[in-house]
């Protein structure tokens, strides 16, 4: 297809344009993508067809997977695959997070960043409902963004890494490319892939080795590496153990937080120690409050508890402590005595709860409504009903020791209820 721009009168090349030769302002060429959707990646045009980028095919690789993403020769994907009838009746897809993890990547975001030829597809709401129905997607992701890739494109990118018990070159789509890569690593065709190491972890090891050899370049490391830096934490629930002002990864964010709080490299450790001490003091105070008898309602001296002075023979435990008269040295200490007036519990340190004896706990409870007398009302309420109603009630809690009268009364009420239910 030729697109000609008309030349201005008097300009050189105007006659050439009329003869079909492009002049200074003429443009001649083919439409990119041939009229199909396309995308420019690293200066090269890739057409989008069949929910994936059209890349170079390999005759050997085509014998291992067909056009719809179905593996051949008894091979199986590590990740689960499925068909989306709304897109194609036979083409196989997989979740992007599964494709990432089975290829050695932490998450789908890092997967797409490191693999620009993986076309990211967004699942529609009907597709998410369908995947939940067939058990390929958790119901908690119903309202979340879910990304997909075609199984064929995932296999073409990572080959043997995506296959159960995959073997280098044997299970790769591009055998020549895979052979060149594993030869540089000292591997041979047919060797098992084994456990995959995340590219970020490998980069961290390489960065650590380079840091040992070239300590002068520590300050330059980490610049321009983006969000996923070498040696980053592998979990959000634990740090790497590096200080915020060290050369560790992702420390720029920590430094910015400390800067806003008025901390610098000279005083941040002192502030951390001070906050740790404050937290320890707060936890110690909470534990001491829990250890107060009966919840502290009787103060520090509950009924039945008294303090006494007890003399302990120190000479029974240690030798060579006899005095001039040959008697063992005696030591005085204060102890708390309990006469059995109030039940004392046992502190359980793992849960921070004081446990009391079972015979001090109530075995049953009941509600007993009292009728209002003429002048005093137990319940003050409004005239409205429903959601606008309000009322104030006076409730007394009474602890009753078990007795024969109470037992017989409760048993009689139970018999009456059972008789009413039976009828």
UniProtKB/TrEMBL annotation:
Residues 1-35, 295-344 are annotated as: Disordered. It comes from the Eukaryota. InterPro entries: CRC_Rsc7/Swp82. This is Uncharacterized protein. The lineage of its organism: Eukaryota, Fungi, Dikarya, Basidiomycota, Agaricomycotina.
């Amino acid at each position: 297809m030729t697109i000609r721009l008309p030349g201005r009168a008097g300009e050189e090349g105007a006659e050439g344009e009329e003869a079909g030769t492009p002049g200074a302002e003429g443009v001649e060429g083919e439409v990119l993508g041939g009229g199909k959707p396309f995308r420019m990646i690293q200066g090269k045009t890739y057409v989008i067809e069949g929910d994936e980028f059209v890349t170079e095919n390999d005759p050997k690789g085509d014998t291992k997977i067909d056009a719809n993403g179905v593996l051949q020769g008894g091979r199986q994907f590590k990740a689960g695959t499925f068909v989306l009838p709304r897109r194609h009746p036979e083409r196989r897809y997989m979740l992007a997070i599964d494709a990432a993890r089975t290829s050695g990547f932490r998450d789908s975001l890092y997967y797409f960043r490191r693999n620009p030829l993986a076309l990211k597809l967004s699942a529609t709401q009907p597709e998410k409902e369908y995947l939940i129905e067939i058990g390929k997607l958790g119901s908690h992701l119903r309202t979340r963004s879910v990304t997909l890739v075609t199984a064929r494109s995932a296999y073409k990118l990572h080959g043997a890494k995506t296959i159960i018990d995959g073997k280098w070159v044997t299970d790769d789509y591009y055998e020549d490319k895979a052979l060149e890569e594993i030869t540089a690593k000292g591997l041979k065709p047919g060797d098992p892939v084994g456990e995959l190491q995340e590219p970020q972890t490998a980069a961290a090891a390489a960065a650590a080795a380079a840091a040992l050899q070239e300590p002068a370049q520590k300050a330059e490391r980490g610049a321009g590496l983006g969000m996923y830096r070498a040696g980053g934490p592998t979990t959000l629930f634990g740090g790497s153990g590096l200080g915020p002002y060290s050369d560790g990864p992702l420390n720029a964010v920590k430094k910015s937080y400390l800067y806003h709080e008025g901390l610098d490299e000279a005083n941040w450790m002192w502030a951390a120690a001070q906050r740790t001490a404050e937290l320890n003091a707060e936890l110690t105070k909470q534990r001491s409050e829990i250890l107060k008898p009966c919840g502290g309602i009787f103060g520090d001296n509950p009924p039945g508890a008294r303090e006494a002075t007890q003399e302990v023979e120190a000479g029974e435990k240690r030798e060579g402590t006899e005095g001039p008269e040959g008697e063992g040295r005696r030591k005085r200490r204060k102890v708390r005595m309990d006469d059995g007036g109030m039940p004392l519990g046992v502190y359980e340190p793992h849960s921070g709860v004081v446990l009391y004896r079972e015979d001090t706990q109530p075995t049953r409870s009941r509600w007993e409504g009292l009728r209002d007398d003429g002048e005093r009302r137990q319940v003050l309420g409004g005239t409205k009903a429903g959601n606008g109603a309000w009322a104030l009630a006076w409730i007394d809690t009474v602890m009753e020791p078990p007795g024969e009268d109470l037992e017989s009364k409760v048993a009689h009420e139970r018999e009456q209820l059972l008789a009413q239910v039976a009828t």
